[in-house]
Amino acid sequence: MIRGRLTMGEMLVATLAIIHHEILLFAVVGLTLGGIDDFIVDAVFLCRRGWRNLTVYSRYARMTTATLPASPNPGRIAIFIPAWREADVIGPMLRNALAQWKIGQYLIFIGVYPNDDATLNVVAQIAENEPRLTLCVNEKPGPTTKADCLNLLWRAMLKEEGRTGCRFKAIALHDAEDVVHADEIRLFDMMIDRFPLVQLPVLPLPGQGGWWSRAIANHYCDEFAESHGKSLTVREAMGASMPSAGVACAFARDTLEKLFDPANGGPFDPISLTEDYEVGLRIADMGGRGVFVRMRDIDGQLVATREYFPDSLRAAVRQKARWIIGISLAGWDRMGWGDGPTEWWMRIRDRRAALAAFILFAAYIAFLLWCILHVGAWFGLGRAYRPSPTVELLLWTNFAFLSWRVIMRVVFVSREYGWRYGLGAIPRTFLANLISLFAARRAVSRYLDSLFGKSLVWEKTQHRFPPM
Predict the structure, then answer these.
(1) Distance between CA 435 and CA 318 in Å, rounded?
(2) 456 and 271 in contact (C-beta within 8 Å)?
(3) Which of 166, 202, 349, 407 falls between 20 and 30 A from 416, CA-CA?
(4) What Gene3D superfamilies does this protein map onto (predicted)?
(5) Global confidence as pTM
(6) Nearest-CA neighbor of 169 among 103, 72, 261, 53?
(7) Could you give the CA distance from residue 447 to residue 452 in angstroms, rounded to a whole number?
(8) Alpha carbon distance 120, 83 (integer Å)
(9) Fold annotation for 77-223+247-273+298-321
(10) How many CA atoms lie within 13 A of 231 on its CB side?
């Protein structure tokens, strides 16, 4: 009887070993391809940075907003701020923006909804005696999509142009929780002369509260420090399309007009959940070139938009699921692949999130099975698992890529937030992976629902604004 149980145990362990080998092979191949992809981006960034340091910055000082010349063709900037249930943050955000930008050539358009009295009342009180603000109430009850609200603001801008006879030069986008920089309007005004899309960095504010909330919020710091410190720089340098982040960005007014669709009532597609990302790609498809600008002010601070990101697991998963749906899943068939190998490569990078999460899940399953097999070996149920030479080589390759990725993450986070936050990025990597797995699962589920007729709507993220 005992021998029979051992035989069944050995058979089970042997079966698990076969399953483990197949899952592990899939995971290590996928991780290796992803590692090569990331390493090439790192290599391009480091080579470009070294070359510019030798050929440009060794002879010329880096430009700051203190030395930034005025635009030879100054114009009025329209700032679009869509707001759905933002009563807690829209007031402080607007007061800070008006204080930072002071009197200038801009007009803020704020889109609210008739069934959101709290936000409407806050904005109405501020706009009552403020000529730099225009309150726009959507004819439809909320929530709609953010793109639908942006189209409302586009139509309000056209009415303002008709009333004054003065066309706007550019449209800048912000969210209701953004902490804006005083110099961004001048920077937009200058750069729009040369580029139809200008994107500035976004820097998440470090989290507050307990360690769990801080860790969730701070993993956004990690990702944006690397993405907006390296990846977008490489993307621009290689001539690929520049996706808009939806905040801290500006579009040439004439360029957006070319995207106008009467059926949508504006240049943004109202069924899209990532309208900002798509507009950047559509501009590139028309032949326009976007630019990512990292410039510091007179105090050495980066001209960037700062904001709090979600600090709860549920909110982070919901937000990232929306990004995956709009970019990785719906974007696949909505936006195509563009022209040329560089554009193909960058769009593959944009859309790999769902597949990367699946590969990551397979890697964790393979690790769990490896632990089970070793426990079985301790009890005499088979031998300890030893991978094939090919798999072992790939495992060591992935370990090298992982070590390199951690070093790069620490460097970029330390550059923006200090070395303590940089070192903290190491354990937060595992949390980021967990959030990505949950977000991918939710994204695939919601995307499949949409294929069967369920509408995608603006999922609310609760925002906070720092005390100023």
Answers:
(1) 10
(2) yes
(3) 349
(4) Spore Coat Polysaccharide Biosynthesis Protein SpsA, Chain A
(5) 0.91
(6) 72
(7) 9
(8) 9
(9) Spore Coat Polysaccharide Biosynthesis Protein SpsA; Chain A (3.90.550)
(10) 20
